[in-house]
Please model this.
Amino acid sequence: MPPRTAPGCFLTFEGIDGCGKTTQVDLFAEYLTRLRLPFLVTREPGGTELGERIRKVVLSGQSVGMDPRTELLLLFASRAQNVAQTIRPALARGRVVLCDRFTDASLAYQGYGRGLELDFIRRLHRIACQGLQPNLTLVIDIDPSTSVRRARRRNVDASQDEGRFERETRAFYERVRRGYRALARREPRRVKFIPGEDTPENIHQAVLEHARPLLAAPLRRRRR
Ligand code: TYD
Model:
């Protein structure tokens, strides 16, 4: 069994739709560039060519009537490929890996949101990702009413068809948010909550406070 963690450093960004985590991934990537630390940015669903094809199927508004189990298995198919092809090799080379969503999204959305069994999802994680866990998970927390408003506006603006989740109700996002809270309570050292109704720069500073200690080792390696 490969180790749960590798020489690199694995950070994931989470939160309900429209929470601004993608902006935070970008700001963090700029920060790493300034530090001249080698890094890789990926996302889920997606992150590989195959995963991006799965993403289209999972998120398309045309995928009507998708069973929650089908959805979950597709998400883990994308994730298995991303872990094997992108994330593990990058960690093995000592890279900092930033991933826009990971297994916590499946626990929050498919588990708490859709009501699938958490144990089943955790078992799938062990199989698909061979237990790989992020060193740090940053949950950008916003109110579901902000989420629904931002996500709808974005989907109207965007040209791609990724609207299946964005049709969900506020009650769904309340459950997902409660899910992330429960995950943070279960693993308080790994999962950190950051208030997301603030300026991108303030949120970025809060992210850095949690992430800086983890970057000490990669920075030492870089100086060698
Ligand atoms: P994402 O691209 O992160 O969308 P956004 O930038 O709008 O937050 O994720 C797309 C959707 O996929 C989002 O609604 C959450 C959903 N999703 C799950 O339900 N489970 C998962 O495991 C993942 C990775 C995403």
